[in-house]
Amino acid sequence: xxxxxxxxDGGSFLEFVDYAISMLSSSGGDGDGSGSPGAGPAPAQPPxxxxxxxxxxxxxxxxxxxxxxxxxxDLFQSWTEQRKSLTAKRKVELTNLLKTSxxxxxxxxxxxxxxxxxxxxxxxxxxxxxxxxxxxxxxxTHIYMLTLGDMWSTSTIDLYLHRxxxxxxxxxxxxxxxxxxxxxxxCLRTAMEGSGHARILPTEYMVMLLDEDEDEDALLLxxxxxxxxxxxxxxxxxxNNISYSFYARIEKIESLEPFQCTERKQIxxxxxxxxxxxxxxxxxxxxxxxxxxxxxxxxxxxxxxxxFVHNSHEESQELCLEYGSATQVYLVPIAQQEEQVGVxxxxxxxxxxxxxxxxxxxxxxxxVSDIHDKMVGVSLFGTVTSxxxxxxSGTNFYLEIxxxxxVILMKLKFLGAWLDTIKCFLTxxxx
Length: 431
Hints:
By secondary structure, the protein is an alpha+beta fold. Helices cover 26% and strands 27% of the residues. Helix 1 (3-27) packs across helix 2 (48-61).
């Protein structure tokens, strides 16, 4: 080997070690999940010799080649595990984050994080019911990971997040610490590889759990999932150009006849107007049905709209929903020992909450006596003195609003789920 080339390779190796140490040092150990320090003092940065040994260990584990991102991932995991110590404080925190879990049924295929570590194995058909302990990016990369814990385990595990969920961290902020999730279709990167610590590889089949009693979740449901309903999609000719979001109850989960040897399942959904539609899963997607239970509420964002296929020789004109590349699923699980809440009541409650939130943002009151022609953006407060229909269809209404300065007639047109809110506008109500 050319001495000069060997020297250059050695220089690159040492430069990477120094870079990795600086990245691990900058990531810190904030005690926010995976980086909690133990009872004793921990060094602010990894020792140089330790970092060299870990890099060499990872290089040996990947005989076919390794990237800088993989090396950084292994180093970060090893350094985190070395500093981490599961304490009573951590267990109390995890229990508090999972305080709602006791209210719902544990799914049949659910396994624990402790059993994953014990067996060093994870079946794709297994279900993991967990809470997000931490969300972080691997230092020096744009790769997101979640640290997950569950109610029944004393240990945690890291998950490489699939890129279809990145926007729920970066744009929507829904996927964060404390969020309960359920996932299936998982594969394990075993402890015999890389850093020596088991991690879960990316899966497309993860649902985020929402709680209607939490204002933030209720507002998300009201703002995003109470606009469209199944009949509006059926009547819309340009339906493929619209990004629909539906909120419906799971009525039935059943298997379908295979299509050209491809396994299929359907979830029958019922919306606010008792309209039904099939949510069809194909092939590997059927694993997603392991996360659902009859009676739970499904919030379905951007489903793919298709014609239902009965068998290999027949495609009907009946529309169905499918799990497309842009589809995201939220779940409101059915609670134990509680009366099942109907869709109508849920939609009315969510719609009222959204209206209340909009009213809180109003800062300037306009009186009836101040209103004149061609005004826009008017914020009017008053008492409803009468309500009557303005159209035979029952979607247009006249409301007579009175305040201290006079009376004015208001015409309102309600579409979709908002039609239910008219029931709240009774004579004498203040709006």
